[in-house]
Amino acid sequence: MKDVVFDAVSLFQRAQRVSPGGVHSPVRGFRKVGGTPPFMVSGEGALLKDTEGRSYLDFCLAWGPLLFGHQCPEVKEALHKALDRGWSYGTAEPYSLELAEWLVRHLPWVEKIRFVNSGTEAVMSALRLARAVTGRQKVLKFEGCYHGHADSMLVKAGSGLAEMGIPESAGVSPRVAEETLVIPLNHRTALETAFERHGQDLAAAIVEPIPANYGLLLQEDWFLPSLAERCQRTGTLLIFDEVITGFRIGLQGMAGRTGLSPDLVTYAKVLGGGMPVGAYGGKALWMNHVAPEGTVYQAGTFSANPLGMVASLAMVQKIKREIPDLSLTKRLKQWKEALESFAKKQGIPLQIATESSLFWPILGQTSGPVRSPEDIPASHAPQYRTLFHHLLARGVYLSPSPYEVSFLSTAHTEAQLEKSLEAFQESLLLL
Ligand SMILES: *Cc1c(COP(=O)(O)O)cnc(C)c1O
Q1: Three-state secondary-structure class, residue 215
Q2: Is 151 assigned a catalytic role?
């Protein structure tokens, strides 16, 4: 495609004729920010290049997997070698074994692990397992947490504090939604009430240990330990959905940082380094119920695909060697502080929520930290749209939705970060 120029507008028209919304995952279609998405043809380091030859500093990074930027050399080399051995066997093979042993060695709460192809699949499988081993049907989730698109997770809160969920998507059976209890994040009474009323019926409570799918909703310190304690008391399995936080917030994710041993954990995104890899794992006591050892059926033609397995091993080994979290946290903090102090001087209400290499600019007056969807100021969404497009015009690609976090990678250079600050400052002045 190198020498051919395609304009995004006509590509998008063509794409919309043959695919819903012109894309294969909704946010890519720019509905949340408006306009036409650029069509990207290559990525290298921290840069994406589109069909019109424009370059963008990428802060979306494929929605998380690219902790080391595009074309991480170690992952690329592993993939090249693997290609020469063929790319799908559908048999027992040593590549998943090596990865599984490595993960079990480094993640104490994972005694056994099963590889799948996405975060959605990992969550769906973990929930099925939780229902099977507890003999219970209901699952607790938190408003604002995303766990992929399995039916039982596409559920929003009904009215009241501890209500049964209602479908959030057309096509989800209300009967399935009813089995999911949805309560607000960071809310003591709701948590207490939910466990008092339903604790004996809960197969699992699932949580993003750092909620990063409705902006970045940083929780107070009491929240996770309190949830873990209630799970333990009621025999409810605690599932940490570490699809975003896993291998990003340090090698051991939030399970490692908090020391709260979840019963089951789900991984994807960073784990595959850009290849479609997901995983669920946990105590052998539970995992032994998965087929063919046990009676919980779960399978996959492409599961533990050799390309994904070698990419994953290269990723986790590099993360262990280089501990990217440390430098990324520091660099992002400096960048955030520079931007917030600029905004303050200009009288622009801006708060940038950060955690490790995750960030989320919040536009508008807030009365403190934003910890749940209701705390997000009404001005945020329209202003984010404007900011997004001013940045895009300056070659900076933020995640294209007011409610999605953005990411910093180790591939972003100091010079690129400096330039992005200028672009942000110019764009903020145009709000
Ligand atoms: C992205 C995400 C998922 C879904 O993963 P897919 O690979 O997109 O299916 C699930 N849980 C969390 C926390 C995620 O961020």
Answers
A1: coil
A2: no
355-384: pLDDT as tens digits = 999 999 999 999 999 999 999 999 999 999
pLDDT digits (tens, 9 = 90+) for 10-64: 999 999 999 999 999 999 999 999 999 999 999 999 999 999 999 999 999 999 9
Provide the CA 410 distance to its chain's centre, in angstroms: 18
Residue 397 bears catalytic tag: no
Q: Distance, CA 34 to ligand 1 centroid (Å)?
A: 23
Closest by alpha carbon to 268, among 303, 217, 292, 295? 303
Q: How far apart are CA 36 and CA 184, in angstroms?
A: 34
Instruction: Give the DSSP letter string of 167-192.
Output: ESSTT--HHHHHTEEEE-TT-HHHHH
Residue 147 near residue 180 (C-beta atoms within 8 A):
no
**pTM of the predicted protein model:** 0.97
Which one is catalytic: 112, 138, 141, 269? 269
Q: Which residues contact 123 (CB under 8 A, 6 or more apart)?
A: 147, 148, 150, 153, 206, 239, 241, 243, 266, 280
Would you tell me how many other CB atoms lie within 10 Å of the CB of residue 220? Answer: 12
The answer on pLDDT for 162 being more than 60 is no
Does 89 have pLDDT greater than 70?
yes
From first CA to last CA, the distance across the chain in angstroms is 36
Predicted pLDDT of residue 6: 86
Of the candidates 218, 155, 157, the one whose C-alpha atom is nearest the C-alpha of residue 193 is 157
Biggest alpha carbon–alpha carbon distance for the chain = 64
User: Is 241 part of the annotated catalytic residue set?
Assistant: yes
Residue 268 Cα, ligand 1 centroid: separation in angstroms? 7
CA distance 407 to 386: 19
161 pLDDT band (50/70/90 cuts)? low
